[in-house]
What does this fold into?
Amino acid sequence: MPNFRDTGHLFRFAGIFVAAVLIFLAIRGWLVPHTFGQYGHYRGAALTEIAAKPVHFAGHQTCETCHSDIAEKKTAGKHVSVNCEACHGPLASHADDPSIQPAKLNTAQLCGQCHEASAAKPKGFPQVETESHANGVACETCHQAHSPAIAAGGAQ
Amino acid sequence: MQGVDGFMYPNEVQLQWSVLIVLYPFVTGLVAGAFILASLVRIFHVEAVRPTYRLAMLTALAFLLVAPLPLQLHLGHPERSYEMYLTPHRTSAMAMFGFIYLWYLMAVLVAEIWLDYRRDIVVMSQSVTGWRRWAYCVMTLGSSNISARALEIDDRVGWLITLIGIPSAFLLHGYVGFIFGSIKANPWWSSPLMPVVFIFSAMVSGIAAVMLLYMLAAGLRRQAIDVRCVDTVARYLLYIFIIDFSLEMLDLVHRIYEADESFRSLDFMIHTKLFFSQIVLQIFAGTLAPIALLGLTQVVKLPDLARKRIYAIAGCLTLIGIFAMRWNVVIGGQLFSKSFLGYTTYKMGLITREGLLMTVLLSLLPLFFLWVLVKLLPPWYEKQDTLTVVG
It folds into this structure.
């Protein structure tokens, strides 16, 4: 092959590139899960794996089957649209076994997550600077969390 | 809140992109600029700048090797970064950049350097001893054919690669500007001129860096600087600098004339928080001063020594100015609120993962890589002439 004698080194260089691409494709085929891209840009099998995980949240309907008095209290108050587990945390274990008692909430810290004053919040939204307002005293000392509106009998 | 003037949305108070993200476009800019300078020899046959050709290629390679490191440090989890290549999302500009980077590194820079040095590599594989001999033998890929015909073919293929390399270099750095320019939520960045400004500022910084490195290397090697070469490099630097400055001013004038809802806020920021980095460092010290100095050498006949000193000062000022430009884009774009009612402050860490020390180390690392590359592949032409060709 006299015509290729002086270009042999170029073929060697190109060969390294081709080999690198082939090795990359082989590694990719080995590393990328087979179900990747099945439904979108993610691993398809992840859906069934996630669905098989234990449920942590019981849902407010489950809570209300036992705690109907609280549900009734909430109905008339401003927290009517706040789900139970938004404050109390995931309690599927408690719903399954009522002997498992949820931890007592620290309202001095919890309420501030929504009601801490911030200029970015709408003006009509109830908000306070908790440090000067409560000085560490638990909110439930004065406010009733399940029905904070005065009309429902709670404090504002 | 400390460091905040006026009103900021909560997610705007702390800057997400640190000084490492300033360093990243600065480094890729140097790569693209150095390559464009090298292409002056290959494609445009500007023979006067040939003494910088190989140094420019090695500089581009040394800086390109460091380019992803600021991103890796910023993002964390470098062990996951290869996944970008395995499952890239076609709508992600960052994912696509991974391939542009690899293409530019392997198909352009490494290929061109290998072709250009092949004759030297073969000669050195037969003349040196020890581990270096093995290194050169590996680099020959087992072929010691350096016949006149083979070298002529190398030259032609090298020319073709450079031709492909110019748009690739533009793509590499234009992409960085593209990412900033396409963030429509940020009026400081969102401009179709951004990729073009980035490309020209890249050329300016890369040419200035190679010019400085060439002069520095000549000084360290106690060799005379080729004045005709640095004169030509400086002239090209001036021309491209004028285009770059004109584009930046076009962007500025357009913003002033358009005066959209963000203008008052951005104008206030330039006069306060960005005054030193934008007005003083970028525009006056980093742009107008080097343009004036380089222009002076074109209109006044100065002795060689004076010209060389002026080039050195202008080169240093240029690099400061381009770094300031990257700073003003990256940091400046995060200092104001989308509400246009407030400003935050960037406080750089000192000895943190994204702090000053790491930035200094990452800035010095390419120089170390360059030193290794220069030792392995000497870019000095007078040495090449003394080599014995073994065919």
Q: What stands out?
A: Residues 29 and 202 of chain B are 4 Å apart (CA to CA). Strands of chain B lie at 5-6, 342-343.
